[in-house]
UniProtKB/TrEMBL annotation:
Name under which the protein is recorded: Uncharacterized protein
A matching Pfam family: DUF1561
Ranges annotated as spanning the membrane: 6-28
Xref: InterPro entries: DUF1561 (IPR011455)
Amino acid sequence: MRNWKVLIIIFLVSVGTILEYGINYTFVHASSSKVNYSIIQKPTDKPKDKPIKILVHDGGEFCYGPIFSGGESYIVIEQC
């Protein structure tokens, strides 16, 4: 008797899962010109990059600068 109840519960859970995640049969005609899916994008903002300056004790001025090599990026100290 217990096996019968377990089988019924498994069956009901399976049917619920199938109904929950069933195939959506909403048809859309391929040549429909009524729908316009174009997305208008605004231009990007201008970059606001500023160099990172370092003032050393003897009055020298240096800047951090990026270097890209072999697909990796590094930071070096350069003269501004």
